[in-house]
Each structure stands twice: as structure tokens, then as C-alpha cells.
Amino acid sequence: MRELASANLWDGIGCGGSQKCEIATIEAMRQLTGDPRWDYEGVDVGDFLLEQFRVGDHVEALDGQRWCQGRILEAPKEDLQKDQKPTWKIQCNWSSKEFLSEHIRPVTAETDGLQRLLEAFVDPSLQRVLERLSGLKLQAVQASDGRRSMAVQVKIENVREAQLLRDQVLSGELESVVNEVLSRHSTLKCFPWEIGLDKTAFFELYERTLMSLSDLTAHQQEKLEELESVENPVIHLSAPAGAGKTFVAVMHVLKRLEATGDGERRHLVLYVAPNKALLFHFLRWFMVFASTKTVRWRQHLARIVVMCQPYQKCMKPTITETRIQLDPVEASSEEFLLVVMDEAHHMFCSQTDLAQQEMLQKIPAQQKLLLSDVSQSDGSQKDLTFDRFFPDRYQVALSQVVRSTQRIVAGARAFQLSAADAVKSSSLGTDGPPVKSFIFEVEGKEGNASREEIMMHYVKYTMDAFWHLMQTFSTLSFDRRLSLLVPDERFREDFQRLLDLELQKEFPHRRFQLVTCEESLSYLPSHMMAVNAEVYAGESIVLDTIENAKGLEQLIVISIGLDGGQDGDRLTRARLYQGITRAQLVALVVNEFVEDGLLAFLSKVKLKGAQRFQPKAAFAEIRTDAAAALVASPPKKVSAEAPPLAVSAARPVPEEVLPIPATARTTGGSAAETSKELPPRRSSVWDTESNALGAGARAVAGRGLRFDPMESMLEAYQRAVTLMELELIRDAARSLKEAEDVNFYQFNQEHVLSKTAPPDGIVLRGVRAPPQVAQSLLRDRRGRRFRSSVHVTREIVQMDAQRLRSGAVGTTQGAEVMADGRLAVSVDVTHGSFVAGDGLFIDSIAVGGPEEIDLTGSISYKEFLSPKPCIAQWYCCHWWGESLDSFVSSCQTHAQLRRRGSPGSAGGYWVAAFAMRQHELREELGPDLKESPFYDALRLADGILLTVDSEEVFRRTWCHYELYAGSDLKHLDVVCNGAMLSRTGLPGESMVAKQLREKGFDWELLLKGLTMNCEASRATVLADRRMFAAIFDQEGTLKVDETVCSTFALLAWPQAVKRGLVSTQLIETVASDVNREALELSLAHLQEFQDPGMLQLAQSLPPNLTKLKLGLEGCHELTDQGVKALANRWGTKLKHLYLDFVGCGKLTDASLSVLAQNLPPTLTDLELHMAGCVLVGPPGMEHLKKHWPKSVKVFRASFKATKLNRNFMTLQDLEDYWRES
């Protein structure tokens, strides 16, 4: 049963896949239950089919490893013995060969369908799709057995094209597209064929192809020519991981050897590396490339010797039938033509033995080539000793990563040591899948877990990573394509013992074998082996230390336990960088959660939704100086007695070193207001869904991270603006026009969008322009993007197709010709925002609109104003037709009333127009609004501030949704013309003062909130209308309307009581909100609130309330009749009840009695305050005891200044009173 998930059930052997599943289930049930009813009898289907295949029939039969069409010459006898298998004699149609076969099948509809499938494959429509998708060409051919077959021609000219095809195959995209096209093909309607790609067979071809691509990239070629032109005896080639340092060195070595004569017999080249695995890696690449370039490659190989630590002897490579062998050779005093020192940052650093460094420096050579990446060293640039030993070296720098995907490069950027290198580096790779993490906490051990227990956790989550890979690449063999990299040899030994057992248990059919890097790379590439020998019948997976993987690469890499927490920041950083950058396509990280570790930041990260990956934006997520700052800081103290792998104990971090705080400290406020957990940062690089984190991670989130490479990126919820910034915005708006009526839309079009566009301009891709316009643009290159001295600018204008916007305006920087002949035009935005699809005018000449726009690098207006984070305390709800003057005035009023301080204080007002990146608004919102940063900011805020300048705000769709989504927030403040309504009282404000403050609010305007309606609401942008139509439909339009309208009704209720305007509309609006489960309302000290008002309030209670909180303190005219009306209407579903009748002097024991009689059986929490109700006494408490619900677990009450004259702080206090009385 355990094999069913990953076994190939349709392998052509025995029963079909479904039957195998049935048999496995029956066998499992027999073993589990022992019930004889699960017994079955196996019958060979051949017994029934002997009569089906007669002499002369046309069939397909298996001849060895392939199926052939032919005619039956002889059929098996009908009286076969039990141990005899039926065998047919077949004559092949194509070759006339006669052979015996036990496996035959009819040539029927299946074969006919296959022929039709082949016809469909060569259909021009599918040909065009495949060629456009991945450069594939199909051609029908005649196979040697007479059947029609299909040949696939793959056009691969460079590494990127090979990687694109690789990703399309592995992701299943190619299969999906092909099957989608085939499903619509007319000839296949009766044959539901589905095409599957053999990923293992593909990768065997891919790996051979990749190793035979001997052409350098343009960047590599440029750097190779540079170093070949230099006569300096020492050349230093530095590059980030994956840029091809070793590849360039191989080409350089080959060229130097090619330039020597055939008569030269001595060793000319010495290649030096830290370990044998890298020696084998270099030799494999040299053999493959040299064999494609020259027939003398074996002679050249004989002139190479190699050396590794401890750098004491040279070795000569020898090729056997299947392996590369290294044999010691006598040391020679002759001068080498070239010495290549790979991973030189490890050889020449402060941690390396000085004697070894001096020995390496003194090796006689005409030229030395040093290959290094400072980010892979254990220290920093100042720890390297290049300047001491090679002060006059010539420096050459590669900056373009070729090996790894864009996401791997971006993920490793967090641990890249040189900020300058990180900024300069780029990647030619494909996007690739996200870097996936499996960060876990060791459960229930509180820091005292044994090494064995922790190792078992590592194995468990590594197996989770295996299953993830199995599901992602279902038919891919991992043989020599997967590496597991661990921190040290002790870890490897302990881990391998447990992992071996688990692999055998989980995947017995896969026959995994764990080998070292050295063992894996010592074998020749399969196509260069002299014999067709299987090195290992199963799948070899590399398990080795990160030290032994230096300079190597693998398709898939799992970095395990590299963030150990006990090794110091420098070594940990280097290990993580090395581990991630070893991967070509897929990088995974498995690690226990170390609270002050370098991967702890992943506890606060979440993968962005299904959005188009943008490499520039991904790179911008990471602080380029994060790793360098970490290394430069004082080393972390490590206890010498701390056991390896022990879970780190919690320790405080000084406040001054905390990064962006984990709670809303920057904006002040009370403790209650700053206790919300911040939403995770959204990353386009890291997939943290498989993390298994608990209390330890939450504790770190509460106090901040010691190392946070993403802290420079302002999340949307951190882009609130202060009151001072709002005043600067108002001043900027006033500068646009003399009149004080610039609204949000105008300010955005005329100011915000030009200030927040990418600093290097946007790129409009796919523009079709008349020849004369295209030529002029191609000549007019300027700025950073195009290097030229020409500075001609041309106006480019776009009008929105719906004529709802004033259009976009910019000036061109120049253009480039794309592969399809259209243009990519670089533009400086001066007004508005360009959109894909709409037509353009360049110098008043109409041109085709762009298909795609590159907006990478755009920012929000908040980020333009200040890089300082400010967390949302108040979510501002408004409409874009409101003037900036009116809006800012409302915020000033709000700040003064809420006592948020004078101008300049850190008041966090979250305004979508300034917080969201307007050029990339759709990307920021994403496909699911509840997963967007906009929603994070709304839910994180203490409350909503609704600014009302007209009744139009109650008609806007965005406002409708915001009020619905934030309806359960603690605060809702509404400001209009200097007056403010609030759901609760302000800090230090009495309820009487609240009533006086709200008295001046425009009552008629407020009542418009009672009529808000989803279907009648308005949104200017068509995409918004469609989005909210879907959201409201999903949520339920009636539910949304009832929630929003009842919220306004409750907000208006105190003033309605004060003005005597509690209407039927007000009552019905609240009562009809059937989805409302909590109602909180304070009518304290409203002398106008009497028994009739209590009846109206009781009539308004929604039917499904579970929580009711009423503040009726000081309502002196309230009597027992009012309390009775309330108690009779609050329903039977209440769980939490809070009633404040303090000072209601007309209430008697009858009120307490009626309350007791109507307490619902579902009640769990009761808080009752009747202090000052002088007529209440022991008889009322007896009634309470008589009707007391057993479900109540929490009780608080105040009865001071009554006949009881005591308070009850707990339920136990009440029970003690009853017992005493």
C-alpha cells in the first residue's frame, strides 16, 4: 500500500494500474482483519484469451524491448500445463523476422487512435504552439517496425533556452499545453489520449545537451577576452556563485593548451581546489568541452595535473571505463604554463594555514588564475589575504549568474557578503520555483531535546521535502540530480544512519543510495563511458558536508541544518549562501527554528499569491547590506558548553538593536492598541507554507529579529503617513492649483504617479510603430538604460479607451527592437499611468499600444516621502473625489480629538492612495483581496476613520467593502465638517462630553449610511466593479448591506435618543442584521433614555446575538419595566452578557428577578453592575440563585451602595455569598 503513491502502476507488467490498487487494498485488509471474506483467487487472464488470437490474425507483439506489428504464425495449444505460459510465433510486417512472444495485443481502436494522435501532432496549429512555447519541431517518420512514429527536433542555442525548456517540462506546462491543444483536435474526439513526458529520459538528454553547449554568454566571452589580453602574471577572476568562473577557467585552460605544440609532453597546467570533488567536477567539464572542440582532448588532459588540500602532492587524472582516477605523480620543479586556483577565497583567508598559503604562492608558473567569490568565504573582505600574497594582481569581475534561477539568486542575496556585488549581479536564468523552507520547532522539549530527538526531526522534515519533490516532479529520477548538504561530518554520520532507514521504509521500490560528492563526481558522464554499464541499479543521492560541495552544482539541493545557531554568524552565513547557490533549479532549506539564527526571518514571511514573478522586484525585497552588517557586528557569544544542535534558549535583545518592531511601537498608543500580531511579509522568492512553527517563533515575532534581510522593504501596512506628512501632501496639492479643490484623483494623476514611477523609467514592450517613428526612437538613446550622448526626447501620450481618465504622458528615453520586431520603449512618466493595450501617440503620431509594461522599481507615495516605517493605526476610508484640503482637515480634527499629539507626531493614518504602489496596484492587490497587503493594513488598524465631505462617500463600492471588512474593529470614527462621531468614547472623555461632541454632527448626512447598497454602489474602474461584484456575491450582498447599515444605525443610536429620533427604520436596520453576533452600545447618562427607549432597543436586537454589552450608567429614569422589555427580547443564544445599570436608582429586586429568569442556558460570561441601585437587595440575589445557569464560568458584579453593599470579583465570591446567606 505504501508504494501506491509513487509506484509506476502502468508499467506494462501484470495487471493494470487500477487492478493493482484493488489487489493491494485486498492484501492490506487480509493482513489487517484476518477475515476470510477478503480471500481471493488469482486467475491468469491468458486462460480466457487463448481463443481470441488465432493463426493469421494481425497483432502487436513484444519482441525484446519493443512492440512490433505482425501476423501470428503459430498459436499456443489449448491444453497447456499450469506452469506453462502461452507463447505465440509472430512474423514482423516490416522486417519479416520471426520471433516468439508471450505478450501480444490486438491492433484495434487503440492502435488506430495512436495513428490519429501522430497525425494530430504534426498539425500546423500544434506545431506553431510548440515552437512558440519551447522551440520544438515535430516530424512524422517511419519506424523500423513499420509503424508511424514521431521525431522531435529541439532547437537550443544557449543556456537560457535549455533552462526554459527544462522548466516547462518539469513544471508540467508543456504537457498541459500539448494536451489542451490535442483535446480540441477533431480527429481525436473518440480517443481521449493524454500525453505524458518521461522527465527522466528528458533529463538525460538535457544534461548531455547542457554539457555540450560550449558557447560562452556574451558577458563571459567579454571577460574571457579581457583576461586573455592581460600579461599580468596573476589574474584574479571574482564572481558570485553560479556566474561560471570554473567554466571560463576551463575555456581559458583549453585555449592555452591548444596553443602549445604536439611535441610538448610535460605537465603544463595545474588545477588547485580545496577538495577532490571539485577536482573531479573540473575534469568532467574539461573533458566534455574539450571533446567538442578538438580531437586532441586526451592529449590535453594528459598535460593537466591537479592538487587539493593539504596541497602537498600533485595527481594525474586517468580515465578508466567508467570513472576518473587520480594517481600521484612526482613533483616537478619546472614552471607551469598556467596554475588555476579555484575557490581561492578559501585558500587565501585568515583561517587558512600561513605555510600552505606561502607554498601555493611559490608554485612556479608563467601565470596564475585565481577564482573567488568573497560571499562564499567564512569571513569578510578584510579577512582575505590576496593583497598580501598577490598585491599586483589584475582584477576581472563576472557579475551575471548563469547556473541558477532568478529566485535562487534572489534568495541567496540575503546572505551575499558584498553589497556592491549584490547590486551589480544579475541572472540569465529562468524564474524557477520559489525557494522552499521547512523550518520546524522541536516539540515539547523546551530546549532540552537530545541530539537523537533533534536528528529524528531533521529526518522527518527532510522526508517531507522528499515528498514535495516527488509530487512536483512525479516521474523524475533523482539519480545524481539531488544533493543533501549538511554542516559537518558528525551531522552527516548521525543523519545518514536515520535517513537510510526512513528512505528504505518509505520508498523501498526507489532503491535510493546515499553517496558523497567525491564518489558521485568520480564517474564519467554517462555518454563518455566506454561500456554501457549501470553504475548503480537504483538512484544515487549525494549526502555530504557543505565543505565538500564547494564550487559544485546540482539540479536540486536541500540545505539541512546549516543554520545551527552554535557556529557563529560568519560561518553560518557562508554555509547558507553556499548551500542555496549550489542549486540549479530547486533549492530547499530544512532547519530547526533558531530564534536568533539567520533563517528566523522566514517565520515572518509568506509567499505572494499567483502573481507574475518580477526579478527586479524580487531582488529589491532584500537589503544588500544585511549580511555585511551582520559580519561586521560583534560576534555572537557562543557557549562552549552548549551541546551541538541544542534548541537555543530564549534571551532578550536590547531595544536599540531591534529592527522594524513587532508591534506598533512607532505610532504610540496604548498597550491594548499595540498588541496585534503583525501580518507576515510577502515575498516572491520564499515559500514558507511547509514551516511548522509554534511558541518559539511567536516569541521572536513579539520582540523582533536579530537578522532581518527584508527589513528595508516597507510592507503595505508599514506605509501609513504621519500628520506632518499629510500636511506636506496638502501643500503639494495646493501647489498644483490656486484653488483648494484638488481631489485625490487629480493629485494622483498629476503628481503621485510621476513621483512614484521607476527612477530609470518604465518600459513599454510590444509597441508597433511606423518605420519613421521606430527609427527615430532607436536613435534617441539616453540615460542609464541606453548609453549614448544623444539627448532627444519625444512626447508620448496614451488616452484611456473608456475616456474615464485624463490619460498618461511621458517622454521617451529610446527603444530597443524585440525578437518579434516590435519595440520596447523606455519612458519617463510625467503624468498619469500607462496601461497595456491602449493606443499611444508619439509626437502626435498614432502607434500600437504596448502588450506589456515593465514597472519594476515603482514605489508608493509614502516611500517617496519617507523610508521610515509607520504602522497603520487608523485606516482611512474616503472617496477619491474628496479634496485633499478637506481630507487633511478631517485628519487634523481627528488627531486633536483623539489626542494623538500635535503636528509632527507619529500618527499612523493609512491612506490607500499613498500606501499602495499605484503603478502596480493590481499586482499589489493580487487575485484574492483578503490575501492582499491592503487587507493586512485594514485588519491591523485599531479602527476606521471615515471622512465624509458629501453623501457620495456612501455610494462608493470601495468604501462599502472597507466598512464591511472592518466592521468588527474596535473603533469607527466618522468626521464631517469638524464634527466627529465615534463608536466608543475618546481617551479620558466622559459619556456626557461624548454626547456634546457628537451633537454638531450632520444628522441627515449620517442617515445616508442606513441606505448603503452593494448593487447600487459605484466604482470608476471596470476591474474594481468586476472584482467587488464577485466578492459581494461570494460574501452575500444582503449580509454585506445588513452589516454596514446596522453599523451606522448603532453609531447613530445615541444621537437618535438625544434628539428623540429613534425611528422604525433605525430599529429595523439593526434587527434585520441576522449575521450580527456581537452588539455593543453605550447610552450612559442619556436622561432621554427611558422605558420606551429600552423597548425600542430591545426590539432592535438581532436574533443571533452571542455577545451583548450595554452601558446604561446614569439613566436615572429607567425602571423595572424597561429591564423586563430587554430581558424578554435578548434571545437564547447569548454566551457573553455585560449590563451596566450603575446609578439607575429606580431599579428594584424585580429587575434582578426578571434578568435571572431570562438568563439563557448558553451563557458562559456574565458581568452585572448595579452599584447605586438602592432598592436592590438580598431578595433579588435569591432570585438570581434560583435561576442561575450552570453554564456560567465567569462572573463579575458590583453592588456597592445597594442593600447588599458588596462587589463580586469572581464566580467563587458569588457562591461563597450564597452559601453564607
Automatic annotation (TrEMBL):
The keyword Acyltransferase does not apply. One of its GO terms (molecular function) is helicase activity. Residues 664-687 are annotated as: Disordered. SUPFAM superfamilies: P-loop containing nucleoside triphosphate hydrolases, RNI-like. The keyword Glycoprotein does not apply. Residues 664-673 have a biased composition (Polar residues). This is Helicase ATP-binding domain-containing protein. It comes from Durusdinium trenchii.
